[in-house]
Amino acid sequence: MKPRAMLPLLALLPAVAFAHGVSGHDADFVMQARGAHPGPFAYLGAKHMVTGYDHLAFLAGVIFLLHRLRDVALYATLFAAGHTITLLGAVLLGWRVDAHLVDAVIGLSVVYKGFENIGGFRVLPVRPDPRIAVFAFGLVHGLGLATKVQELEPSRDGLVANLVSFNLGVELGQLLALTVMVLLFALWRSTRHFNAAIVPANGVLMAVGFLLFGYQLAGFLLAA
């Protein structure tokens, strides 16, 4: 990939740092909702996933080198299982973690996948199992989702139904995003430029992760 071709990707980096959270009318709705509202909460979950650049960047890294649909399905299921466990568990059981620190680790998860995709772990005598890593990072991404819900302090009235609906929406949003990504990657792999772009493209992915990590770490230090 030529440096000029990478400029649009680099231009997205500032947006990545800020593209996370529930705000505006969506936030007002969550804070004021009483009782079960499965439809709106499912919509919010899907919207959060398809506009969450940190989640999308990680998913792009996960499927970057996957050629078979069954492998995509396996890793997507592991990721979904991980973030479902911690999203539901953290909110319903009242687990609280610092949102900045969780999002900083999410940034590192993007770095991890980019580094793995360029063969960075080949020098190690024992390589991390990518399936375990995706599930583990899914747990972290779920905590990130949970912190966004907890910040809005939703009513306990209808919380279980609304949270399950929100999580269902997240899964639907992930499925939609993955469908688009798989098609785009399939088209990209059919060109003669793909192999040459693996290292620079994953370098950009790592840069996005480091930017998100640095932004969230700075937020944590300033808040402290």
* Average pLDDT metric: 88
| Domain unit count | 1
Largest sheet: none
Strand content: under 5%
Name the poorly predicted regions.
1-19
User: In percent, how helical is the residue content?
Assistant: over 70%
The separation of the N and C termini measures 41 Å
- Shape label: globular
| Class of secondary structure makeup | mainly alpha
Following the backbone from N to C, one meets helices and strands in this order, namely HHHHHHHHHH
Assembly level: single chain
Rounded to an integer, what's the Rg over CA atoms? 18 Å
Number of helices: 10
Please give the number of β-strands.
0
Describe the overall structure:
- The structure is a single chain.
- Helices cover 79% and strands 0% of the residues.
- The chain is an all-alpha fold and 224 residues long.
- α5 packs parallel to α7, α7 runs antiparallel to α8 (130-151) and α7 (99-117) packs antiparallel against α10 (194-223).
How would you summarize what this structure contains?
This protein is mainly α and 224 residues long. Helix content is 79%, strand content 0%.
Give the tags.
disordered N terminus, mainly alpha, single chain, 224 residues
List the SSEs and their pairings.
Blueprint: H1 3-11, H2 13-18, H3 24-32, H4 38-51, H5 53-63, H6 69-93, H7 99-117, H8 130-151, H9 159-189, H10 194-223
